[in-house]
Amino acid sequence: MSFGSPVVVAYEDRSSAIPGVELLARSLQRHSPGLNLYVYSPLDVLAELLADFTNVTFVKTVDLVNCGWNAKPVILLRALTEYESVFWLDTDVIITGDIGSFVARFDKDAVVVGQEFRGMSDNGGHIRARAYGLVPARSLPRSVNSGSIVISRKHRDLIKAWSALLSDGRYQAAQSQPVRERPAAFVGDQDALWALLASKDYANIKVDYFRVGTDMIQHCGANGYHVIDRLARPFGSGPVFVHMLGRYKPWSFGKIPSARGNPTDYLHMVCFELSPFFEAAQPFSSDLGSPEWLRRRTLPAKLLNLFFGGNVALRGLPLAIISWAAALIGRRTRL
């Protein structure tokens, strides 16, 4: 049996992320007006911003400030007290298709999570389970990304266990370290969820995925939208949502970084201006006040967009190929 129509939930306590919340709300209203969005937040400005949306409810939430991604299991459990099934989306997601009918295709008994980029998970789940003192029982076919999750009430024990792991002393200690220095099991909330899903205690739960390239796009850097996915579907409507994950957010680019003085930021800005997220946000530009970050301003992005006739999959392909090649060379060098 498939999912019905879950409510969509999100949490945000950063004023800097307000544009993302508005894009999520507006894109959901356009493409899936039958789905209701509940935005949990301490920000009163969001209550005002979302007041006129017919399918959006603001839930004042003041006890989770500065929890970051660790707020997810708490919000999910609160929503499950009222609703049978819940669809979590990060606030850097934009909807590009009818996500309601899309979610209905999944088995209601499954936990549905995002796929973390391309590739197989190998022993990643086992490594994470052992780090938390859990007994590994299965290898999941793909890595877990928690930016998009669909669950039902029957999964509440799993979500409670997830919340408990995020209170683990080792996890909390790791959060004070730079991301690149954290042990794999304690990088973020999704590693704890992956550990549980791979463990003996929860091996009976069916796991399904939002697949990158076909269901969604995990866009982060030049090849976050992978070369293979670009070439597999160069035309047509494409996936039903785009996740602009990572520390570089589109609305961070108020000014053009210096290509010489800050080449990393400049490259990320070029990648964003060529991205599916940029394209999907264009219809809402005027509603957002036509911000600078929704205008294509870098010369490389303008030229590549012109050369590929505005094709979203192909215009970023040259940079994606370079990034993929560099990553392959880097792996071989380390061997």
CATH level-4 homologous superfamily of the largest domain = Spore Coat Polysaccharide Biosynthesis Protein SpsA, Chain A
Note the gap between the termini.
Answer: 46 Å
Give the strand tally: 10
Compute the number of helices: 14
CATH architecture annotation of the largest domain: Alpha-Beta Complex
Overall SS class: alpha/beta
Radius of gyration equals: 20 Å
Q: Helical proportion?
A: 25-40%
**How many separate structural domains?**
2
Q: Helix-strand pattern, N to C?
A: EHEHEHEEHEHEHHHEEHEHHHHH
The proportion of strand residues reads 5-15%
Topology:
Elements: E1 7-11, H1 18-31, E2 37-41, H2 44-49, E3 56-60, H3 72-80, E4 85-89, E5 93-95, H4 99-103, E6 111-115, H5 124-131, E7 144-152, H6 156-165, H7 169-174, H8 189-198, E8 207-210, E9 216-218, H9 227-232, E10 241-243, H10 263-273, H11 276-281, H12 299-307, H13 312-315, H14 317-334
Parallel strand pairs: 1-2, 1-4, 2-3, 6-8, 9-10
Antiparallel strand pairs: 4-7, 5-10, 6-7
Helix pairs in contact: 3-6, 5-8, 6-8
Characterise the protein shown here.
- There is one protein chain.
- The relative contact order is 0.13.
- The longest helix is centred in the C-terminal third of the chain and has 18 residues, at 317-334.
- This protein is globular.
- Helix 5 (124-131) crosses helix 8 (189-198).
- It has 14 helices and ten strands.
- It has two domains: 7-210, Spore Coat Polysaccharide Biosynthesis Protein SpsA, Chain A (Alpha-Beta Complex); 216-334, no CATH class.
- With 335 residues, it is an alpha/beta fold.
- The model has no long low-confidence stretch (mean pLDDT 91).
- It has a seven-stranded mixed beta sheet with strand order 3-2-1-4-7-6-8, sandwiched between helices. Strands 5-10-9 form a three-stranded mixed beta sheet.
- Helices cover 36% and strands 14% of the residues.
- The chain has helices at residues 18-31, 44-49, 72-80, 99-103, 124-131, 156-165, 169-174, 189-198, 227-232, 263-273, 276-281, 299-307, 312-315, 317-334, and strands at 7-11, 37-41, 56-60, 85-89, 93-95, 111-115, 144-152, 207-210, 216-218, 241-243.
